[in-house]
């Protein structure tokens, strides 16, 4: 009987231990399962706000990436757009979080916004946009755009009415738009100033609606952080007046164009109505300026020169080469600089005549714009790399550029001097073509395989273990919480995600350069090494390296208090990589090895 009872007790203990283990496992599952977020496929789409556009008008291309737990999404690669001008770009991000069956679902949408303007009338296709994310390539559907002489504007849907101003504020608070001219040529600068007039004490909440400036390219000239009021008399009444904003408009089409109203949100303190109303009351108002009509004259078509660069204003031209000799195919930079006042940002690159045995690459463009005087002025520099293909003396004929002077109402032509340089020791190099397919760069990652023989059950000390288990579980819960917060930040904060992944991405790209070094593939080695450096800098500091010149990128890094000498060494490597990657110059294996080691050391210290 005792033996039977003892056996029953042992069985009961085993049953209790089994149930306790099962309960603990379920408890841990309940803790960690909600924190597991699995990244799935992304949705990649492209849309436009309209498919019929008038010549000279603008439209918006929205490229959106949507998915669960997406992080570190790069900017999409746009197709070639020879029939459109890209006037501006921006981005926005939104995130929605929901809990379904105990699992957190987080959907993030990142939208890249591009403002485009057509160059001519006709039917055109915006090709697929592409994005590379987590080893996969996604493409959007092509979009058909019809460009007509004058687009038929769709009737906008009615928007909610703004708060109606009370009788005391009519005429007491106004927003007035003042253009400096009401007639201009296409491309000529028009300044519009928006003034706030008030007879009451008020707080400015901000601009609630900006004009879309349809038919114009615009640049903000003045946007103050704090308003400065002055006393002025308007229609026989005294007002306090403050300049809210100044924009420079450049018409891109001719005709009678309208500048839409700007809307401003303010809170007005209403004066006390009687003795008992000590402080008065506040009222929110939405005030708007009146629309402005601008007569835009077309540029004269008679005697319009073929070398017209699109410039409207007054400019000067300067051209030079950065060296007069080229050894062993070393590139020579042809620097063409346009300086002056006008629509300098819209000036197109000058045409360089074709020269036998001389390869002319696409220019690097630099802009230096000054808006302090209220007029856009500055310089636009085009740096054309010239790569000689044979020995000899190269003569660059004079470069001509024409612009339109609205003050004189005539086209003016600028001429540069003839330039020359001598090339010696040019080496004819046949660039090897890699006929191979895809290769696995590394296979050094193995899964951890636990040893089943070493996993032993110990039920005797299980109850004692529970007393030590709870403090440890609290630590794990805190760790899980921090990990979850880190995952959410990766999804919502693109800069944080790029910085977090920068080291891992750099190692992969650096490994690719190492493989090319082993193969003695000079062209691909220098190209991949340059991409690795620029990619790491862009990810680490959240910079669009593709949209910045080397000098602009250097200035951005100097703002972050980085060592100037250290940066000089890094950018010297980038310049050398670009030189050897796009010219017939050859380098020794030992020099490539030294450059590889020096790059690794410099990037570790960045």
Main sheet summary? 7 strands, mixed
Instruction: Give me the secondary-structure category.
Output: alpha+beta
Instruction: Using the coordinates shown, work out and report the CATH topology of the largest domain.
Output: Immunoglobulin-like
Helix percent band: 10-25%
User: Count of DSSP helices?
Assistant: 7
Average pLDDT taken over every residue: 78
Range of strand content: 35-45%
CATH architecture annotation name of the largest domain:
Sandwich
Shape: globular
List the uncertain runs: 1-13, 26-39, 98-102, 152-169, 431-448
Task: State Rg.
Answer: 33 Å
The end-to-end distance, rounded to whole angstroms, is 79 Å
What is the count of distinct domains?
Answer: 5
**CATH C-level name of the largest domain:** Mainly Beta
Query: How many distinct beta strands?
Result: 30
The assembly state of the depicted protein chains is: single chain
